[in-house]
Amino acid sequence: QAKRIEESYVSVERTLVLVKPDGVARGLTGTILARVEAKGYKLVQLKLVDATRELLERHYEEHVGKPFYEPLVEFMLSGPTAAAVFEGNRVIEGFRSLAGTTEPTLAAPGTIRGDFGRDWGLKVQQNLVHGSDSPESAEREIGIWFG
Ligand code: UDP
């Protein structure tokens, strides 16, 4: 109980949310953003972006060299991405909780990836959404996508 109260601190944050090309192509952009808004987070920026390789190289710099890096970039180049900034108390952690774990098959029902994400099969990189994982990443990523 003490730990629960300790964790319920107030921390108004911003996070970068991406509806990746699979989500946009499947017509799920509105559905996904509506879930985030319904949770009470405030939409503060929104645009559709045809990402370039240069932008993606910066965004995914921590993954450069990993086996899934090149297919991930190719996937992210395959169509437009909806980029959004949401604001709210503990929104960074809160959005990742709404999104569910990275692999859609394992993501809990009720989460975005759990409800709409398709089994990875060979297309390991498709999981509908991205959300920043720390305040530092959020600041960096918002700068990359919104300048
Ligand atoms: N990814 C992948 N294969 C992996 C791990 C990650 O294709 O084995 C892709 C997937 O699209 C994921 C992204 O790379 O969302 C970034 O990976 P990260 O570990 O940061 O996952 P996330 O924070 O998006 O859940």
CATH class descriptor name = Alpha Beta
CATH superfamily: Nucleoside diphosphate kinase-like domain
Number of alpha- plus pi-helical segments: 8
Number of domains: 1
Q: How are the strands of the biggest sheet laid out side by side?
A: 2-3-1-4
Shape: globular
Ligands: uridine-5'-diphosphate
Which whole number gives the mean pLDDT? 94
- Low-confidence residue ranges: none
Share of residues in helices? 40-55%
| Count of beta strands | 4
- Rg is 15 Å
Distance between the termini: 42 Å
Largest sheet: 4 strands, antiparallel
Instruction: Tell me what portion of residues adopts beta-strand conformation.
Output: 15-25%
Give the class from helix and strand content and strand pairing: alpha+beta
Element order: H for helix, E for strand: HEHHEHHEHHEH
CATH architecture descriptor name? 2-Layer Sandwich
Descriptive overview:
This protein has one domain: Alpha-Beta Plaits, CATH 3.30.70.141. It has helices at 2-7, 21-25, 29-38, 53-59, 69-76, 91-99, 112-116, 135-146; strands at residues 12-19, 42-49, 81-89, 129-131. The mean pLDDT is 94. It has a four-stranded antiparallel beta sheet, sandwiched between helices. It is of the alpha+beta class and 147 residues long. The structure holds uridine-5'-diphosphate (UDP). Residues 68, 72, 102, 124-125, 127, 130, 133 line the site of uridine-5'-diphosphate (UDP).
